[in-house]
Write the structure tokens for this entry.
Amino acid sequence: MLRTPCYFERQFNMRCYSHSVWGANLLLWVGLLLRCAEARVNTEVQAGPLYRVVGTGLSISCNVSGFSSESAQQDFEFSLKNPGFPDKNIVSSKNPDFSYAVYQRRISSKDVSLTHVNPTSVLFEIKSLRKDDEGKYVCSVINSEYRYDGTYSATTDVKVIDNSLSVSSRDSTTSLRYNEGEALTLTCQASCNTIQHTHLSVTWYLHKDGEDNAQPIISLERDFTLSPGLGFEQRYKEGLISLDKLGEATYRLKMAQLELSDNGTIYCQAQEWIQDPDRSWYSIIQKDAEKITLNVKAREVSPDMLSLAVRISTPQSTMLEGQELLVSCSIDTQNLEGRFFSVAWLRGEIELARIGPTGILLVPSEYSGRQNQGELRATRIGNRDYQLILKPVRTEDQGDYVCRAWPQERDNDGVFTQGAAQDSNPQKIEISVAESELSVQMADTALRVTEGGEFKLAIKVGGVQGQLSVTWQFKSADTPTALFTDVISLSKDGVMVKASKFTSRKARAMRPATDTFVLELDEVTPSDSGVYQCSVSEWKSDGKTHSQSKSADVTVNSVDSLVTVSLKSRDTQVTVGDPVVLMCQVKGPHMPLTLTWSLQRDSTIDNIVMLYFDGTISWNGNTHHYQVRVEKRDNVVVHYLQIVRASQREKGIYQCSVTAFLENVHKKLSPSNLLNVMVRNPASKLALSSSPNMAQNTNADIEMKCSVTAVSSASSLFAVTWLLQQRAVNKTIMSSDRNALVTFGPQTELKYRQRISTRRAEGPTFEMTIRQARISDKGSYVCQVVEWLQDPHGDWYSLPAMSTTTALTVTEPTSDLVLDNKEQQLNATEGDEVELRCNIISGASGASFFYKATWFYAPQNSSTNGSLVELDHTGLLSFPENQALRGLQGRLRLSRPTQSSYRLRIQGTHEDDSGTYWCQVEKYQLDNEGHWQQKASESSGAMVLTVTVKGEVQAVAECTSGIWMVVVIVLVTVALLVITLLVLKICRSKDSRGKKSASSLWTEQPLMSTKPNAEN
């Protein structure tokens, strides 16, 4: 409906112009209409699904626009929906009693909150998510205006998943001491087992002493890019700081030259990221590894340090394998006796051993096995002299040897500070193979194993003349130019020693027979691929040793390339209520596997169940509609997922995915193929019958019936819509949903709504009643029925609609009002009283009808006429304003002695009263809206009245002679008039008393108002 400019003034506080300048302001009016059209309320919430982790926080933003006053603060409400459960009210910014009791406690503890960001935007937050917080969150804005136009609520989906992120440090120590300028290497492991597509980022942090917050050193971002932290950029550019990813889950930090500012606590942090539907990345969980205290001591440089001299010497630089190698180091500087030094032996860039300032020997892990077997010894033999002994020496021990010395200064607390290093000149050592009968043979020189499994390498020895010691070494396939590092060794006394890097691994060195040595390594990973070398040393009684080595290539195949996962089903198109069985076949070697069943619906992936490698099962959501079982065969494991009774909730794309658990790390494997399960509704058996076509008169009450004669289920519910088809256009009249809630169509006017109703009778039968039918009600009435059934979850779904039609014809009834239309001739003498009668012959009965009577008069010899008096259908008597007839109207008296007759009396008739009289009767009835409706109108026959003048009056008037005669006549006339007035008064008084006892509606006073009743 169009509004006047005054309406828009109330809406926008603009000046309201009068209608006289309406045309001049047409553009303004149109502009205001456009603004009103734009002011449509729109509520928006953060798009879902949002995947969040148990125990972490959740925040959902919600804002509204379109209210006429954008600056006014709006109130919001949040509630939670879960399929199959009642809606839960969480929090309201207006009503503190809105929340359920379980949320009242969480709101009081600040775990749940709703905060206004601005007048039209709020932020909903949960600090610590629970598993039952999963569901659809509805943000609703409370309407602050008198009208509804737009969207007042919005929904987003939240998925709460388990925390599978694990982070741990591979360095067992909790405190490290370094000197300024030394190098630091730390490693940590980080992995996750989330079925959703997530990325990991790893950051090493340093919490410096005296600072409030930890600062990032370097980060490997979720997009696999490296980013140095604030204050570490220059060292990163110079290559002094690096972060490397080794294998699937190992991250190594290297800091080449430590600085005094590096004092503090160092640790690594892993974050798991997921991409929300708005394409933004969100950190769903983060964890810190163990923290390590890092102490960096300052390096002091004194003038006498510059005179430090380091020398290297050896008795012989050329020798045979198995002999003893002696490398001596000597240092020389001022005040040597009161000084402390650290001395190390290096072959190339590899440090073999180091003697600290207090005389403690430190051997790198690569040579710890030879130290434990007595093959490597280093000692301090004087203030300035140090010796390194290797026996038996091996061919790989040849190379350039260097002695390196560091001055050490000790403070009052006994803590040493390392100075600048000083190297000797290099000493070249050459080692050749000695003649020996010792022979070594490797059983397998090329071996392929599967990730997570184990491998065995065996050697056989021959020509043995003394005791044997064996060392197994390894060189990674990723670094073929690197040197071999020790794995495990067996001394000549049979003692097994693991290298530090393999202390936590399942590695074994065995001697099942005198001439056989075996290496076993279990739970292998692709990083274990490379060359494995076995070095056998023969110890003779004369002290001489001979050594031989053999190697083998070992390739560890990733399980991702060996394990295949496929998904299939015998029937993927089923009807609601039918069972479905899905089979996930996992082919490949046996290993610890975790299998996850997932379902994708509308771009949302939900985990159904997880079967862990240790036999435990974790269900997500409703578990009553799924069953799982496992069947193991030779090289195939078949996982079955059965949908007990399918519904539309189980419709979607299914997939099974597998994660291998190797070395305490989750490794995702390639998932199965996608399998689409279609769930269709059953065929409808609905049948209808309706009322036959109808023809009715106006004002009649019409009842139409629509009966259901056949149903699809005994528990079916029905939604019914009544439509009116006129001129090929369908208009919805009213609807009743399956819960019998009745609503009117948008085109159904208020007046029409008051005349129609619907109800449900037994059968079921649906009835629609139209009261007081009108011509506009005619047309074809369509009864449209939708059958609703319940699925196994208890959710209602609809079948295709059925309809039936009844044609209605409405006509006006013939008028039954008939008046006496005979013409009447009436004669009267001037001064007489005349009674005019108007009689209703038929049509006067009926308690619901009311009548209006009007008397008309046309003077004699005149072409004009006018109404004299009117008694309307409400009982109100009135005299129409007519100056010419005012004298006549004052002498009229109207009455209704019976239901079907009206009487009009003219008192003291005049000659001018001559003319034609008639009455008009109109029939009225009240409709449902309280309005009077005219049903009929009829006029009576003409009543012609002739009034003549009296003879005595004329004689007196003609007498013109004699004064006495005049006086006599005047006196006689006066006397007659007095007598006449007295007689009239007496007669009128008697007549009045007689009339009061009769059943008459004689009206003594004009403009009297009476109310209609059933007899009027």
Remarks:
- The chain is about 10% helix and 50% strand.
- The longest strand covers residues 545-557.
- Residues 1-37, 989-1016 have pLDDT under 50 and may be disordered.
